[in-house]
Amino acid sequence: MPDQASEPALSGWRLNVRIVSVVIFNFASYFTIGLPLAVLPGYIHEGMGYSAFWAGLAISLQYFATLLSRPHAGRYADQLGPKKVVILGLCGCFLSGLGYLLADQTRGWPLLSLGLLCLGRVALGIGQSLAGTGSTLWGVGLVGTPHIARVISWNGIVTYGAMAVGAPLGVWIWHYGGLSLLAAIIMGVALLAVVLALPRPAVAASKGKSLPFRAVLGKVWPFGLALAFGSAGFGAIATFITLFYDARGWEGAAFALTLFSCAFVGTRLLFPNGINRLGGLNVAMICFSVECLGLLLVGLAPSPLMAKAGTLLAGAGFSLVFPALGVVAVKAVPQQNQGSALATYTVFMDLSLGITGPLAGLIMAWTGVASIYLAASGLAALALLLAWRLKFWPARTTGQATSS
């Protein structure tokens, strides 16, 4: 994709507006994820009569589809151009709504209904993978690679914002009109996003010979591994903070999650140029240190106030981990492979979040829920050590100078 860093006047407000004008399509894709998030498990388990296992499997299909399709999404973005990939992803979100609608209309045939719903989940997972990767690369193509950290940061902001808005709104829509109305709104959101995306300026697909997946993985894996270690804390808080509060007899778990989210978004908004000024690996080390301290405070907390302080620090620390390491990972490959690099790098976070749940559950069963956060703090410390090692990694291994 072309580097448009030659526009020196593109800064501040104009820069943010141009980025948001593209990453808003990732907001649309995550909005279609958030809308049914809080209602589908109950619909499958209670409304359709399937066990909790089948309900969990149907929901997880989206995440498996995202995981498996990410490397392909990056390659297609490199070859076809990110705009086309974003539109294809939004079409996948539209098909997910269609799957929900048909599932609701065929409730009289439970097996068919569940199959249609599962197809919708798979389409959503693929759609999110395409839209998320494509919108990031589209934004980078519009504002230039010097602003890649800000593009990734804004993508994270719209992602969490869409989920935060979509989930409660989806519950309200469900109570008002059931799954059919919810499905229709999902289809409408996706269709509107496609209509708005079509006239937006495209960026050309990258030219040049693409590296094979193994070569891209060889460049990206150290940064992805550090990301995976750091993401475990996020997974532990998002999944188990309620159980942690219940085990201690405390109230306010929901507020702790709110603090985490506010710290996450607030840190990205307060330090938009931190990565460019300090370097990706330096910012990552600072972030891992703060996240490690926050998770340690949660695990050792004798009171809910200390636990909330820990979640606040963990959210602030984790906030810039993805863009900080992502900048270095993407620059480790030639420009025509940046989509594949970004997608491959993101897979490590997907894997981490997928593995954290069951592993943390086993740890909790053996040693108690507090030990989950102590273990996550240890993983954040490992991520810190790995990031420090990467600063002095030979440039021929990572493709980066040690000053990154």
TrEMBL record:
Its main location: membrane. It comes from the Bacteria. Gene3D superfamilies: MFS general substrate transporter like domains. The chain crosses the membrane at residues 20-40, 52-73, 85-103, 152-174, 180-199, 220-241, 253-271, 283-303, 309-330, 342-366, 372-390. InterPro entries: MFS, MFS_trans_sf, MFS_Transporters, MFS_YhhS-like. Pfam families: MFS_1. Keywords: Cell inner membrane, Cell membrane, Membrane, Transmembrane, Transmembrane helix, Transport. It is found in: Cell inner membrane; Cell membrane. GO terms for cellular component: plasma membrane. One of its GO terms (molecular function) is transmembrane transporter activity. It is a multi-pass membrane protein. NCBIfam families: PRK05122.1. Belongs to the major facilitator superfamily. YhhS family. PANTHER family: MAJOR FACILITATOR SUPERFAMILY MFS_1 (PTHR23517:SF13), RESISTANCE PROTEIN MDTM, PUTATIVE-RELATED-RELATED (PTHR23517). This is Uncharacterized MFS-type transporter FEM41_04030. It comes from Jejubacter calystegiae.
